[in-house]
Write a structure and sequence with these properties.
Blueprint: E1 11-12, E2 15-16, H1 17-27, H2 33-46, E3 53-58, H3 77-80, E4 85-87, E5 94-96, H4 100-104, E6 109-116, H5 122-129, H6 144-151, E7 161-164, E8 185-187, H7 209-229, H8 232-249, H9 252-257, H10 265-271, H11 275-289, E9 293-297, H12 310-334, E10 341-346, E11 350-351, E12 364-365, E13 369-374, E14 383-384, E15 386-387, E16 394-396, E17 399-400, H13 401-412, E18 419-421, E19 427-429
Parallel strand pairs: 3-9, 3-10, 6-14, 6-17, 7-8, 7-9
Antiparallel strand pairs: 1-2, 4-5, 6-13, 10-13, 11-12, 15-16, 18-19
Protein name: Sulfatase
Pfam family, one: DUF1501
């Protein structure tokens, strides 16, 4: 994204005007801008927790801030809506009456209530919030999980980057400009309906290992031939697919992670016997087995795009979210995993403060919305930013999507100044804008 304005201090290539003046002095001492950025990244790295993994719960459609973490009980009825607020364990934070478990566990997560975005539509919003970069003609940003895979190592016997559920667009939050080899393994099945079927990656029982090894050598030979006759991009897709398939095939540890039958009924019930709850439980098992980044499609029904049937949709979706998210946080804490597992819940944007009287819903609203972060070194129980009396605009601590992305990068130990090159040789900086939300780290 070019020319983005992050606040009162303009930026150029992700460096503020104030910092640019300071760098001017540094350059006189013989330290160039690239070297300065490199040193800054190394300095930041020293303060970051190591080996932090991530579970990223994607709330398709963009949930209403006024029905989740930014209730307005004293506003007119056409703004505050039908639901009642309940007090949480976090001073100043009210949540929807449909979220009683998250009210009790609010000291495990922090809320940003003053997020803003320049994107108002679903497709581009998906790219933006899953990467911190906007999709432009000829440029598809790499998702957070792909950045983890590119910059860091993962266990060889488990998939490092997993997508649970189908994405809205086929390339959202995936390898993007880094290439298809950084795409996640995508599991679309609903784990609540039975065991995950990995037969597509499994060795047929009738094929012994000698014959199987021969087939794998044949595939390698075919790949070598394919490299000569196909484009590099197409070969990358095939190579990545085979590599991931054989990785899953060869790893009993991965198969065990996908086996939810090993979990006690009490645990499965706590997460919720629905596709969101069981995907969140599966995400925890994958992280525990060694996966680095698991993105979960977090809607149980049609998602949060509530232009109409708003109240009925909230009554269906929010209890599912409440159980799954609270159970995950408590489970991670009980297992000693929360400190090294960043958990994010976010959608594309928020919803309009005023209810659409014609259709009985709330429309797209990117001027002010809420999201949560927890674990992974994030300070819990924090309430960042405040909206105005109607939840329409930030009243304090206005934050942008690049700020959100920088905070994720910081928590995961990623270098936002890392420079990559596209297939046609264009240099790309990982995150050229944004500042870490220091109150959280």
């Amino acid at each position: 994204m070019l020319g983005f304005y992050t606040g009162n201090d303009q930026t150029c290539g992700g460096v503020s005007r104030r910092e640019a003046l300071r760098i001017g002095g540094i350059s006189g001492l013989g330290l160039s801008l690239p070297n300065w950025l490199r040193q800054q990244a190394l300095s930041d790295e020293a303060a970051r927790p190591k080996d932090v993994n991530c579970i990223f719960l994607w709330l398709l459609g963009g949930p209403s801030q006024i029905e989740t973490y930014d209730l307005k009980p004293h506003a007119p009825v056409e703004i505050r809506g039908e639901f009642q607020p309940i007090q949480t364990a976090t001073p100043g934070l009210l949540v929807n009456e449909l979220m009683p478990k998250l009210a009790q566990s609010s000291q495990l997560y922090s809320v940003i209530r003053s997020m803003t975005s320049t994107v108002t539509g679903h497709p581009l919003g998906h790219y933006y919030l899953n990467s911190g970069r906007q999709k432009l003609p000829g440029f598809t940003p790499a998702g957070f999980g792909a950045a983890v895979m590119q910059q860091q190592q993962s266990a060889a016997d488990v998939p490092g980057f997993v997508q649970l559920g189908k994405t809205y667009r086929p390339d959202v939050g995936k390898g993007g400009y880094l290439g298809r080899k950084f795409d996640p393994i995508e599991i679309r099945q609903d784990p609540n309906r039975g065991p995950i079927d990995l037969s597509n990656f499994a060795r047929p029982d009738a094929v012994d290992m000698d014959r199987f090894d021969g087939r794998q050598r044949l595939l390698s030979a075919l790949d070598a031939y394919q490299e000569q006759v196909e484009s590099q991009a197409a070969f990358g897709v095939t190579d990545s697919f085979y590599e991931k398939a054989f990785s899953i095939l060869a790893s009993p540890k991965t198969k065990q992670a996908f086996d939810l039958s090993q979990e006690p009924d009490k645990v499965r019930d706590a997460y919720g016997r629905n596709r969101v709850g069981q995907r969140m439980l599966l995400a925890r098992r994958l992280i525990e087995a060694g996966s680095r980044f698991v993105r979960v499609q977090g809607h149980a029904f049609r998602g949060y795009d509530t232009h109409f049937n708003h109240w009925d949709t909230m009554r269906k979706e929010l209890p599912v979210y409440d159980s799954a998210y609270s159970a995950l946080l408590e489970d991670l804490q009980d297992r000693g995993m929360l400190e090294n597992t960043l958990v994010v819940t976010v959608g594309e944007f928020g919803r309009t403060p005023v209810i659409n009287k014609v259709r009985g819903g709330r429309d797209h609203w990117s001027n002010c919305f809420s999201l949560t972060l927890s674990g992974g070194g994030i300070k819990p129980g924090q309430l960042i930013g405040e909206s105005d009396r109607t939840g329409a605009y930030p009243k304090s601590r206005r934050l942008t999507v690049p700020d959100f992305a920088r905070t994720i990068y910081h928590a995961l130990g990623l270098n936002p100044h890392d420079e990559f090159h596209t297939n046609d040789g264009r240099p790309i900086v990982a995150l050229p804008q944004g500042e870490v939300v220091r109150e959280l780290v």
